[in-house]
Write a structure and sequence with these properties.
The complex is a heterodimer of chains A (338) and B (296). Chain A is of the alpha/beta class. Chain A folds into 2 domains: 3-211, 3-Layer(aba) Sandwich (Rossmann fold), CATH 3.40.50.620; 215-336, TPP-binding domain (Rossmann fold, 3-Layer(aba) Sandwich). Chain A has helices at 20-36, 53-58, 77-91, 102-115, 235-244, 252-256, 287-290, 322-336, and strands spanning 7-11, 13-14, 17-18, 40-46, 63-68, 95-99, 119-123, 125-133, 136-148, 153-158, 165-169, 186-189, 201-208, 220-224, 247-250, 277-281, 298-303, 316-319. Chain A starts with 6 loop residues before the first strand and ends with a helix. Chain B has 296 residues and is an alpha/beta fold. Classes of the chains: A alpha/beta (338), B alpha/beta (296). β18 (316-319) of chain A pairs parallel with β13 of chain B.
Chain lengths: 338, 296
């Protein structure tokens, strides 16, 4: 095993719940580590959270570096940055990946600056490949792929010399593997101490929705309307969202009909979303609903009524029965996704 | 108690309003045809600093790094209420990534001198990286408060700030000095004031002197023009690598660990939509296309 090419994943947890993007990164990290013949190290920070190690290993970690300290109970830049920076300096990972969440985007540049390493934000894909500069050939570099310039170009960034190769990765773009309950890994406790400078900032108040229901910030939303027909049938919408790593949205009509709970409601009286992709299933497209989703980058509409107003704002129109189309999409995704 | 505020701003191409004119025939973006604007969230950062000044007193200094034409955003900052503006410009900065840029800005901030608060926009619309603010904070060795929305209080050497995220809000208290990155929902930036526009109507950097001499032939030499502007407090200083005492090795392409290996243009589609065949094959082709396009 190549210990010089370790892939590190920063695992974001809040009140004992691990962010979905961290599990996606563990899956991706596994794939990169196999390509590099190295291992995946997960950085798991918090207080009284040792029990999460098991889940982190099941999703792909070989080693869990566990920092358990009261000052790490909830995320703050300086104490978290101190622990990561000390570990990076001592062990020199090859790659370090974080979710492009507010936490990851706060922490990653702090690490990059201290470690004098390159950092690419908001990657949508990661690959391993070769890079040539003049006469020199670099093998096994991390291709950090991201949209840039307002989404008008896709740039591939490399960081040939100043490691670790640091990147933040968007939520929902990497495929989360099924946890493997038989996987074994080791847990290593990291001793930490903080001085007054590390604790210059205190959290006075925190009012956050739980990690699991992040509809507002979701990059993929699969939403259902009255055309879904029944509460039982709404499971199709959940299935597609789960397959694509997205969140579930709904129209007011679907909520009023009792198909799904109110926190899923998108629209004027619900939540406004701006995902990269919005899939409207059995949604007619009232003005009120459109107000909550028409800023989505790409919209797919599935409706059996060719004159449904939703088609006026859809980029991709699928005129047909969602009971057929949704299973086709799920199957196509399983067949085509890496 | 007055506070010294420094605001870091950037001039960016207006990527949000790409019109037909800014498109080449092959559907790719013609950068040269895009107007250069004040990065939107940097205006929110400037407004937050001006509000601190309005309430507590102090000075607001605005700093930008860029080519000669970046002086436009500095003039705009003067019109809106900045006390002092500085352009950081040198060929040696060219090609800097966020790490090298943050090093240059850190040197410039230290060259300005004592400060209590540094403000930046959360991110710039041309790169959306949100990296430079936290990297400057790390290099200055001060705490950062990213996603800052409201300054709730400033007293006894501490600032209390509400942060805004898609999932909620957080209130933090932090010892000064510290750096804030400001979100677009923080405030409504004040417009340029006519009185201030008149007061700063000649404001220019020495990089603009050659063009100004053509406009005002009555100044026969650069020296005469420089003296005239300096006497009237209209000279915008330009700082170079040497002025801020920066180490060249950490700047430009050499000081930038990240290299852009390749750029693929996304051909922008027309607004009109496409009908996907209602078959397993049609849906499968769409899903595949979305995966290739990094949308799925």
């Amino acid at each position: 095993m190549n210990r010089d090419k370790e892939v590190w994943i920063f695992v974001e947890q809040e009140e004992g719940e691990i962010a979905a993007v961290s599990l996606e990164l563990l899956s991706k990290g596994r794939e990169l580590a196999e390509r590099l013949d190295s291992r995946v190290c997960a950085l798991l920070f918090g207080h009284d959270i040792a029990y999460l190690s098991e889940q982190v290993i099941e999703y792909g970690a070989d080693v869990v570096l566990l920092a358990d300290h009261p000052e790490l109970a909830s995320y703050r830049t300086l104490p978290y940055a101190k622990v990561v920076i000390d570990l990076v300096r001592a062990r020199q990972p090859y790659i370090l990946l974080l979710g492009a969440t507010p936490t990851g985007r706060d922490l990653a540049p702090r690490i990059a600056s201290a470690a004098r390493a390159g950092l690419t934000a908001d990657c949508t894909d990661l690959q391993i490949g070769e890079y040539r500069k003049k006469d020199r050939v670099y093998h096994d570099l991390l291709y950090q792929i991201r949209p840039a310039f307002g989404g008008n170009v896709i740039a591939t960034i490399v960081n040939p010399d100043m490691h670790p190769q640091l990147a933040t990765v968007r939520e929902g773009v990497m495929r989360m593997a099924q946890p493997d309950r038989t996987r074994k890994g080791e847990v290593e406790r990291v001793e930490t101490q903080f001085d007054a400078r590390d604790l210059a900032l205190q959290v006075v108040k925190r009012e956050m929705q739980p990690l699991c229901c992040d509809l507002k910030g979701a990059s993929i939303v699969v939403a259902g309307g009255s055309g879904v027909g029944s509460k039982e049938n709404f499971q199709l919408v959940f299935d597609l969202a789960q397959t694509l790593g997205g969140q579930v949205g709904a129209t007011r009509a679907a909520v009023d009909a009792g198909y799904v709970s109110q926190e899923h409601q998108v629209g004027q009286t619900g939540i406004t979303v701006r995902p990269r992709l919005y899939i409207a299933c059995g949604i007619s497209g009232t003005v009120q609903h459109r107000a909550g989703m028409d800023q989505s980058s790409k919209i797919i509409a599935i409706n059996s009524d060719p004159d449904a107003p939703i088609f006026q704002i859809a980029h991709y129109k699928i005129v047909g029965d969602l009971n057929e189309v949704i299973p086709w999409m799920i199957r196509a995704y399983h067949e085509n996704a890496k | 108690m007055p506070y010294n505020c420094i605001v870091l701003v950037k001039q960016v191409p207006d990527t949000a309003h790409i019109s037909g004119k800014a498109m080449k025939d092959d559907g790719t973006v013609n950068r040269a045809a895009l107007p250069a604007i004040f990065n939107p969230e940097d205006l929110n950062a400037l407004e937050m600093a001006l509000q601190v000044k309005d309430q507590y007193g102090g000075q607001v200094t605005v700093l930008t790094m860029g080519p000669a034409r970046a002086a436009d955003v500095l003039r705009d900052a003067l019109y809106r209420g900045a006390d002092r503006v500085i352009l950081l410009s040198d060929r040696k900065f060219a090609g800097s990534d966020t790490l090298a840029t943050s090093y240059a800005l850190k040197c410039a901030v230290e060259h300005i001198g004592a400060y209590d608060l540094v403000f930046c926009g959360r991110q710039a619309i041309d790169g959306d990286t949100a990296q430079v603010g936290p990297q400057v904070a790390e290099k200055l060795g001060i705490p950062q408060i990213t996603y800052a929305e409201t300054v709730q209080s400033l007293q006894d050497g501490e600032i209390t700030v509400q942060r805004a995220f898609p999932r909620g809000k957080e209130t933090v208290r932090c010892a000064l000095p510290c750096l804030l990155t400001v979100v677009g929902t923080a405030n409504q930036p004040r417009p340029p004031s006519v009185r201030r526009m008149i007061a700063s109507k000649l404001a220019a950097t020495p990089l603009e002197y050659p063009a100004l001499l053509k406009q005002w032939p009555e100044f026969e030499t650069v020296e005469a023009l420089d003296r005239y502007l300096a006497e009237r407090d209209q000279k915008i200083p330009v700082w170079t690598v040497a002025d801020i005492g920066a180490d060249e090795e950490n700047l430009g392409l050499d000081g930038s660990p990240t290299k852009v290996w390749k750029v693929d243009y996304v051909v922008l589609e027309t607004k009109e939509s496409r009908t996907v065949p209602t078959t397993q094959e049609g849906v499968s082709a769409l899903v595949n296309e979305l995966i290739q396009g990094h949308i799925l």
